[in-house]
Design goal:
It contains three helices and two strands, in the order ααββα. The mean pLDDT is about 85. This is DivIVA domain.
Length: about 90
């Protein structure tokens, strides 16, 4: 009976140590640099929207999705364009 308890304790310790080792080797990756510093993505998206070129709209990718401020800026531009439909070109 005591040998089973010792085995379970040793296995639990190995699992904890293995998880820590795996996480320290493969878990921490550097976050990509801020690509929006190189280009003005919101301005480029607003210009693409004004041209009616939906395929030119792009967002910077960050961990867990897109940059929220870029998406919000485009949604605000779409809302403003909806209030003034003459600003959008129809193809």
């Amino acid at each position: 009976m005591l040998s089973w308890i010792a085995l379970i304790v040793v296995l639990a310790a190995l699992i904890v140590i293995g998880t820590w080792a795996w996480g320290s080797m493969f878990g921490h990756k550097p976050v990509p640099t801020d690509a929006s510093l190189e280009t003005d993505v919101p301005a480029a998206n607003r210009a693409a929207l004004a041209r009616g070129d939906i395929n030119a709209i792009a967002f910077d990718v960050v961990p867990h999705g897109y940059r929220q401020e870029q998406v919000d800026d485009l949604l605000n531009a779409l809302r403003d364009a909806q209030n003034q439909p003459e600003n959008l070109k129809k193809d």
